[in-house]
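Z., the sequence and structure:
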Amino acid sequence: MHGPCLLEWSDGWCYAAFGTRVGRLQNAKLEPSYPACGPDSGNPLELAALRRARGYRKEREMNKRELVEAVAAATGLGRSAAGAAVEAVLEAVAAGLAAGEAVTVPGFGTFEVRERAARTGRNPRTGEAIEIAAARVPAFRAGKGLRERVN
């Protein structure tokens, strides 16, 4: 591997930096207009291979398992107890939203239900107009403390 390259091209196979073989590229050459490699190269073949790579995330994100581990580490609870606590919080938020209530956590933010009006859309395949029904959608509005901590 050379430098910060995420993919190595050899024998028509595409390898991610962490050693996973991503896919076979047939009749594919790196175009001279794509001098670099990696997610910022703009090479569509490379970007597609990166998206298929197991474990690749465009942006860093925390999944539920990592959230449970963080709660367990912060509180000193075991992973199963921390998992139950996280699940209980998520269930309470979902139940409140299903009942039409806003759930406010001071300093963190507000989970709320917003009404989306009915509208006319277009079928992208045929171009024909279709009616999209009104819907209630969950939304989150960050509180002042969270906004300040992120910025």
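The chain is about 30% helix and 25% strand. The first helix runs from residue 44 to 52.

Let me know what you think.
H.
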